[in-house]
Amino acid sequence: MTDKRRQPRDEQERIAKSTEKFWLPCPLCNELFGGHEWSANSSIMYCDGAGAGVCDNCTEEAHRINEINADWVRKIIFLNSPIVAEHDALIEEAIRRGREKLKGLKDEKNGG
Question: Which of 94, 101, 99, 96 is nearest to 73 (CA)?
């Protein structure tokens, strides 16, 4: 079985488009990836049950950010709409908050 991540990105793009899956940048690293490469447990959450998928390479960081942001995510009021205009801003805020807190934890661990 061929590892999908090792296939050339243009081949992945062709597969995504031919199967009508998304082809978008990962919100963490900006690497383009397709819906056929995404798994349901690889997302940055910005509201209970709502989030944005991340590429396989960023799954671990997404999980750490989600753990740190759990209380914040529960407080957000999600508009029950198929299209949420604030989607990108909420994802960016979740990433910013998570990375800021992760940096603080690393600084504390390193004594500074």
Answer: 94
pLDDT at residue 91 tops 90: no
Could you tell me if 11 and 18 are in contact, meaning their C-beta atoms sit under 8 angstroms apart?
no
Give the type of residue at 43.
Answer: S
Could you list the beta-strand ranges (E) of the chain.
Answer: 23-25, 32-34, 43-47, 50-53
Interhelix angle for 87-109 vs 59-68, to 10°? Answer: 90
Contacts for 37 with CB less than 8 Å, ≥ 6 apart? 4, 5, 12, 16, 55, 56
Using a 10 angstrom Cβ sphere, with 0-12 exposed, 13-18 middle and 19 or more buried, the burial of residue 96 is exposed
Strands 32-34 and 43-47: unpaired
Greater confidence (46 vs 3) lies with 46
